[in-house]
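Here we describe the complex-level prediction in full. Unlike the single-chain runs in Section 2.1, the two entities below were treated as one system.
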Amino acid sequence: MASTLTIKDLHVEIEGKEILKGVNLEIKGGEIHAIMGPNGTGKSTLSSAIMGHPKYEVTKGSIILDGEDVLEMEVDERARAGLFLAMQYPSEISGVTNADFLRSAINSRREEGEEISLMKFIRKMDKNMEYLEMDTDMAQRYLNEGFSGGEKKRNEILQMMMIEPKIAILDEIDSGLDIDALKVVSKGINEMRGEEFGCLIITHYQRLLNYITPDHVHVMMQGRVVKSGGPELAQRLEAEGYDWIKKELGIEDESVEQEA
Amino acid sequence: MSTEIKLPFDKEYVHSFSKDMGEPAWMTELRVNALEKAEDLPMPKPDKTNISKWNFTQFDKHIVGSEDYSSLTDLPEEVRSLINLESADQNLYIQRNNRPAYISLSKTVLDQGVIFTDIFTAAREHGDLLQKYYMTDGVKVDEHKLTALHAALMNGGAFVYIPKNVEITEPLHSVFIHDDQEANLFNHVLLVAEDNSSVTYVENYISTMEESKGIFNIISEVVANTNAKVTYGAVDTLSAGTTVYVNRRGVAGRDARIEWALGLMNDGDTVSDNKTNLIGDGSYGDMKTVVVGRGKQTQNFTTNIVHFGKASEGYILKHGVMKDAATSIFNGIGKIEHGATKANAEQESRVLMLSEKARGDANPILLIDEDDVTAGHAASVGRVDPLQLYYLMSRGISQKEAERLVIHGFLAPVVNALPIEGVKKQLTAVIEGKVQ
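The structure predicted for the assembly as a whole is:
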């Protein structure tokens, strides 16, 4: 059954400073949404708040996944409910191999005694790593330790493909990637496409959207979604930049630093 | 005036004990002289830990009687899991309190002239060899009160001798079982690797009781002669209530290598003094230590590599996890003596704190008396990184499991260095039990 993530009037603070000022968004299984916008407009804050980053405090509004109150859940419960966040800066964890970590993650969704068999796990991991053109030795390397920027991004997509979430949020998955890596990452995301999978892509470059056609495009400024449209909106942003939106809405400074 | 501590065993006792054990005259003499010195020598002073109130000298029994194990299946469960019960052809010594309770040596090892036996048998049957190395180049009798007391009252241990050019691939394994409330152990392990030989030795000190008042005064000496290679693993799991002094000392000759992997998991108060003297040119010392402190125990872990040889290399890696109200000091000392040109001394100490009341201090010390050298150190004391937990939990892993992964990962560099699979598994399980 396809999932629905509904965000209503979301207000979020970090260290007492309000970053999100009433975000409304609905993502359904089968849909790919892209959130675009210049730096400092609250895009990454939105992704962190949905996942439950310890530093972000939701002061108002709601996040509902299939009728369940996400804000009442711990981070791990959110993940097991079907949310996934590909992080902009994934942590490095020494001494824990990529493979062991991923098996723990998969088994955390299964009952005791129902754990994924080692063979089945290895087959799935090998297949996905091959698909993402990753070296097989990365399975036995420590989680993100010493990974290049591009390797970390691929590893985030690998995790998504292994875990198969209902709704994935990809926070600047394209930043710092060369064109070949960008193609591979896009390939992984497209592979996930389907009725059961909803996706929110956060980016400030249009180029990722050359490889992944979104169903919906949203623009964030000043901590709100200020404009939504179809894929043609991304193309217009690529061609003309953000100034026309600012003019249209009477915004002088798009960042959250300034009050409108 | 301070009251003199009267040692519980006198010269006559030590003399007759040595005679009863059938020891050669030199050993009897060494014991009696050491006892005399023990009266006057001061206690050791581990940096930043005050042990003046710790009891290392007052106890009732020097020797307890223990039964032999008629077969390996009679061993306590926690010991059976350490060893391969199926293999008849293994190099295994089991000591029960003071009693040598089981020994087996593979034919290949025996045929190459390797000696692996309890220390009393070694004194009777290999007296000259033992005399050459016993408390001579490694630990000296008169370093302080505890080394002297050890020499006087030594009541258990093992002797390992690897002849010249002999390379042993299968590990030698000692298990020192502590299962008697009244036992006190002055255990001595002497490992000698002659020129161009190589050996892997692993030992377990294991209490099968939850708590006891036992006193442990342990010395291990490793002598690696020219171009020899020794890998020395240990997992100590002595019970709460014990008081432990454990001194593990290495002496490396020219181009010799000594690598330590120590899992120091005692639940009692412990002073661990681990030192390697890199005497020969091109010698190499690597000391890896993991520690988990819990309850109210106080511990001091001093790891020391002294460079005498030119182009000698020393590496210290220590990772400690502190929980509850445990207190630990981690002293890492890299010392480069004058003349040890091109030496390299590196050390890293990391302490992870799991509770507000736990205390951990990492003190990196470099003492350098030579110009043409390289040296470096890194030390940190911190808590589990909340962002690491967030990352792991964002994949569905529970907080408890996420913490477990981070802690295991933190201790992995040393756990993975242990050479015997059963012992590695045991250490992993011990860590599991201690940090949960």
